Amino acid sequence: MARLADYFVLVAFGPHPRGSGEGQGQILQRFPEKDWEDNPFPQGIELFCQPSGWQLCPERNPPTFFVAVLTDINSERHYCACLTFWEPAEPTQEAVCTEDAPEREEEVDEGGPVRLSPPAPGPPGQLFAPKTLVLVSRLDHAEVFRNSLGLIYTIHVEGLNVGLENVIGNLLTCIIPLAGGSQRTISLGAGDRQVIQTPLADSLPISRCSVALLFRQLGITNVLSLFCAALTEHKVLFLSRSYQRLSDACRGLLALLFPLRYSFTYVPILPAQLLEVLSTPTPFIIGVNAAFQAETQELLDVIIADLDGGTVTVPECVHIPSLPEPLQSQTHSVLSMVLDPDLELADLAFPPPTTSTSSLKMQDKELRAVFLRLFAQLLQGYRWCLHMVRIHPEPVIRFHKAAFLGQRGLVEDDFLMKVLEGMAFAGFVSERGVPYRPTDLFDELVAHEVARMRADENHPQRVLRHVKELAEQLYKNENPYPAVAMHKVQRPGEASHLQRVPRPFPRLDEGMVQWIVDQATAKMQGAPPAVKAERRTTVPSGPPMTAILERSSGLHGNSARRLEVVRNCISYVFEGKMLEAKKLLPAVLRALKGRAARRCLAQELHLHVQQNRAVLDHQQFDFVVRMMNCCLQDCTSLDEHGIAAALLPLVTAFCRKLSPGVTQFAYSCVQEHVVWSTPQFWEAMFYGDVQTHIRALYLEPAEDRDPSQLGEAPAQDERSALDVASEQRRLWPTLSREKQQELVQKEESTVFSQAIHYANRMSYLLLPLDSSKSRLLRERAGLGDLESASNSLVTNSMAGSVAESYDTESGFEDAETCDVAGAVVRFINRFVDKVCTESGVTSDHLKGLHVMVPDIVQMHIETLEAVHRESKRLPPIQKPKLLRPRLLPGEECVLDGLRVYLLPDGREEGAGGSGGGPALLPAEGAIFLTTYRVIFTGMPADPLVGEQVVVRSFPVAALTKEKRISVQTPVDQLLQDGLQLRSCTFQLLKMAFDEEVGSDSAELFRKQLHKLRYPPDIRGTFAFALGSAHTPGRPARTTKDKGPSFRTLSRNLVKNAKKTIGRQYITRKKYNPPSWEHRGQPPPEDQEDEISVSEELEPSTLTPSSALKPSDRMTMNSLVERACCRDYQRLGLGTLSSSLSRAKSEPFRISPVNRMYAICRSYPGLLIVPQSVQDNALQRVSRCYRQNRFPVVCWRSGRSKAVLLRSGGLHSKGVVGLFKAQNAPSPGQSQADSSSLEQEKYLQAVVSSMPRYTDASGRNTLSGFSSAHMGSHVPSPRARVTTLSNPMAASASRRTAPRGKWGSVRASGRSGGLGADVGSRLAGRDMLSSPQANGAPPDPGFLRPHRAALYIIGDKAQLKGVRPDPLQQWELVPIEVFEARQVKASFKKLLKACVPGCPAAEPGPASFLRSLEDSEWLIQIHKLLQVSVLVVELLDSGSSVLVSLEDGWDITTQVVSLVQLLSDPFYRTLEGFRLLVEKEWLSFGHRFSHRGAHTLAGQSSGFTPVFLQFLDCVHQVHLQFPMEFEFSPFYLKFLGYHHASCRFQTFLLDSDYERIELGLLYEEKGERRGQQACRSVWEYVDRLSKRTPMFYNYMYAPEDTEVLRPYSNVSNLKVWDFYTEETLAEGPPYDWELAQGPPEPPEEERPDGGAPQSRRRVVWPCYDSRPRAQPDAISRLLEELQRLETELGRPPERWKDTWDRVKAAQRLEGRPDGRGIPSSLLVSSVPHHRRSLGVYLQEGPVGSTLSLSLDSDQSSSSTASGSRQAARRSTSTLYSQFQTAESENRSYEGTLYKKGAFMKPWKARWFVLDKTKHQLRYYDHRVDTECKGVIDLAEVEAVAPGTPTMGAPKTVDEKAFFDVKTTRRVYNFCAQDVPSAQQWVDQIQSCLSDA
To answer: Over pLDDT 90: what percentage of the chain?
Structure first.
């Protein structure tokens, strides 16, 4: 029972204390005046009576009524019913109002008070003040309050003869029941009668019509939004002009939330003075008068529902999760059926006559029924996830949220997740979780109706019927007695408020009211309490839960098979059938992605545990751990499927014995999972276990067979923990006090013992086996925040050493372990605190636990140390054997194999990809580090791929980036450390270290790699280490030569150069290669020496050569032998006679001015300069150019005699300064000016040296041209280009906007307004239309002879504002080129594009092409080709060109080399290309070591592939003109690989000067190198070319005069396959000795037949080398030929000879009748311009018969003629064969048959007659260099005709036989025919007579 009303209050208008215009409420009277003990008087009532503020009104308003709600500190709600009426204001009140009336703004408040500035005082301006009657109650009977207050107001207004005190006294003493459906009639003693009905169940909310009204005002979608917002704890604000509507809306929203209770701020009507409450950070539901809408505008996170306008506004920053589907749509459709039943019938052709719509009250209940059903569906089965943590003295219940979400299949659902985490749900659990309590409609629904709701889902009518049934129950709950006796309450007459009330509301007599109240209270105390006993029962649990959406059933059939596989695998493991288990393991690991399989695994493993322990052998242990890890890796931190929970007991059960007394448990191997560091997981687990044990306490022993597992439905006969608890709660009151105490203690100690157990469990799973791995802890979620980041570095670096030596007394060990221990202790303590306080453990016990935890952790750490130490000693389990890589001769292993997994890196090849084939990666193997390479060898991890060996390697010197990564190993899915190594040979090793590789080993690998990659000195590179067979310093001297040796020479040379340099004084910067002592310092560019050469040079350094000292002459001779000189003589650019005198007729000469490298260190010793320039003038000229690289001639066109010059860029003085100077130089000039003058003279001399450098017009300009396409006479669409060098034509050129050849190259902005809009593709501006369709050059006739004699192509920046040459003999062509750093950046992006490093987000060609375009690599190649073609055109038309870009050693070299390659067919041969590279790249000082970052000093500058870019350009030309090159595309790739590999010394160092300084350039004449590996790449290529045609291009059929003009547009360029192809079978194919195909099968495997039968094998494009697996036709034939020759016992002929013969024969064949084109590949007269052939020959290394077998260890005399072995040579033969034959003098040679010694057969041998050595030598065959025997001619006595003997060749004439008789024996010979026999005899005779 409860009081109907607690307080009655009278509130009136009073003046504001601070004198402002607003009034304020004053409490005139309140009854009772003393507070009730159980219910103090609520504060702030006066604010809520007039929520919009207390104001006077000019007219009398009708009375208003509303109910406000106040919430007290105990979150009890107080309902304040307020009835307000207006009385005339008293004068004091009016005065308050008029004082500051003018300052008031007008405010019209409809429905609320209206205030206006009052007119002058007097009766017409009468003001009215509000007065409010307030009833305060804890019960929500709004209608009764309205009637009661109305009655009091009526008595006052109508002046009825009833004492107000009596009425109020009766009202305050009225007692009514709370619930139970009783009916009470009350009367207040004024002849009135009211009937109060109480609801049946007080837990169900009373809504009257509020829900229906809410839906009418806002609509379905909006209300659903508000519903979700309130449940997910958002802020909701209602706006309306009606206060009553606001209360109703808030009440309606709360009614919808049932069975959850809203526990945040709830203020249906918020007074204006408290509006700042809206900015509170907590959620709320608040109503505010719409008049204050403006103040709510700036609220950013509040959802505003406007009831009058029907809108809900959700701010952008707020996301309201919606109900999970299909509940959202189902609810929506049912709501629309309830609200708008006609909707279903709207489309019917014959609608039923009328449909009965429910009354508003009934509709209200139907809507609530829909939401009740919704909650029953959402929370169905919630009781199965309750954990009973304590039963006595009070139930403590926890909800297992993760299990609930997991079993409902809603883990991802945002809405339910937030609801379960919310406060409302926490209240729901503590209120409804109790197992023994009264039940209500919701409990019934959730327990019994779930199946029905599921069945009805698809039948709208059945759903509607169910809704109506529920609505009936809800309605009955609110209105238990339908036939209610009528109320009888007096009301005031119509408009009674307008009549003048004679008096204001009277003051009541407090005493009288108090007396009535006291009377009633006394009576109540006497009466017995009428308490209605609650009917408490056990709450039904209902059916176990199911997922909201059933997953598609297709999977279930499949999963049964999968579970079978899991079961089989586990039974194999425990039966010891390891091979069977291993076969199944991959399938099991795949199956374990599914939830059912994981559960199955846990159940199966449980069966193998006896007495909480299962000891396994190592292999079994390994299998079990792998499966567990696989299970756990997909567990989220919540573990919603209970997998981690099921495995937790198992990881402490499975173990293996490591040694006596040391056991390793599975938990030490499964720690790497996020779930273990999640506190929520441990709490749920703890509560689950506590529940099991508490339940066991109360079960009779018979029942307590096996505590049911967490989350699984217990068997039928077992009572659940909730049932047990319910029973215990029922019995509790009947127990004696002592029994109660005993039970409480038992439960408490159960919880306590579980807490200790869990502290142990947590330490097991949180402490790592190896304390050095403490960082793993740090990286985990829960523990990360406990760790300070500061010491992580220290601990990691020391980890390795500490882990190895536990016995050391170093302080680090303790620090290390404590660090980890501290983190774990803190984590466990936090957990213990939380669970123990929640489950009511006594504080003494809790203290005890806190003391215990550090000891538990410390003990466990000590146990682990022993385990860790022993586990390190275990042999690794059955890992695949490490495959050792094959090494080159001289290559040594630095670090033996570290086990790693090679992971896929985004290229398709390794994964099968589009090429087809299996997924070879990830592969399991080892990484080796040798002095030359980083090599991975291994096998694919997927056992289904097969036994393929995977090899990936690259030279150490090619490493460009090394980065640590953290990756999952493919098999165990553990997080391991890894490395990603990227090389400039387009290989990427992305690997994860195996867990057996300690962090120290990985670190050692990185350090060693770094040391090898960046040696402190160039002598540390592999090429040097390999070359120096003896001491690492200078090679030992063997013989003393007569003349000074080259080595001493080179030393003198360097000394002289240094002296000269020392004498020069310093004026400006220049690059000076650092001496060897300083090589370890940063690159020289940072602190460049400033060197310039003085005028007064010592005569001795620059004398004419007649005065050369002998040693200098020797240097000269060696310089003459260099490539440059050979080429200069070929080009006729100058000769060097013995006296070094000049041939005057020659325009150019070879100058030895730089032989000591004194003028320019980066130039060769001999340079071509104009005949007319003196050597000492060159010194001054060189000063004008960067790095002293002055212009020198490097090539001359044979046809037009134009020359190509190269130089560094100009310094700021020099030509530019000269051109800028307005007046002629005066005699007394500075040094700088004189050098400029020298420079102009020098250019003049160059121009004069050209055969035709003037023409009749005297104006040598680039005049206009037009071109036709490809020799056809269609005019091209280009405009004419006017003379750009003539300032007069500038305006014309601007008008015509030239777009021709020059238009595309020239940069705009030349001085004098020349061609301001000339387009410049090279300058990187917008692409203008190219000269011809494909960027091909215009045909040769496009340049007229009227042009400058010399064009200087220079950097645009350097030639800015240059005046043209006054005599117009040379002209400047400013172009914009990219710098070396741009090449570097572009190359980096190209590497990323071709070898991405990780699988692409969107696989497919598009992403590759996009990243390729971003790299701009092809654009740079396009620019290079474009400039080169331009220069080719100029040279071809007779003008000379000086290329003067950057420092003259990068882009200059690229352009100059390309120009020569395109112009001169000689450079397109193998020999010519070598010469070109030696001359332009090596001699002219391209900085290979600097650009390749070969040493420590270059590390910061990084790899810049200038040479590779040049090779790419050559490759583009090769593609377009395949018949013009003698070398194959493979040759270019080979050079591209080895220029970065440091295997050969060819591409080391930055200039000839440095090579001399290291003694690389000139070999000692006396030193014949022994059987060493090649140091020079050219030597190696020569050797290989003799063996195999892999560098040769079969389509080579050049046209002698051909000048190549390739297309250069990006659309014509192809990506070089060097960047993209990869062979995983053998690694890169560029180290020929290593790239051997698979060995031939042994002989015995062959069938007995003679010819081998064909064996088919699978060729995988992603794995095998296609050129080797399927060589092209010609290679195959040559191979076959060699094989057959070997089988016939003939010495195989060189492939080149065979090929030349075939070619010659073919030409003859085609010649005689001249009909048609010969039917062969070798067509040399294709009429097409490109002459590209349609036949594609596979290039690349050839098949295995041609293999160069360096590993054959046969003795040189073995001659097993019939076998394959004859084709193989011993190693020594091989090497000596490649030595140059210059030392041999071959006077006469040929084939003779020779009879062997006694009883030996006749054999064909290759004989050489050497007159110099007086010998007749013979060899096995022509190509051999190792002699088989020697006949010394001094011993020969006679040469006579011979006779055939046994076994002699049958077909030969008898006269072809002759004998040679020596002092020792007689040799029998037979020539091929008589004439050759005669010739041999004559030659030998003449030799003998000479002697």
So the answer is: 26
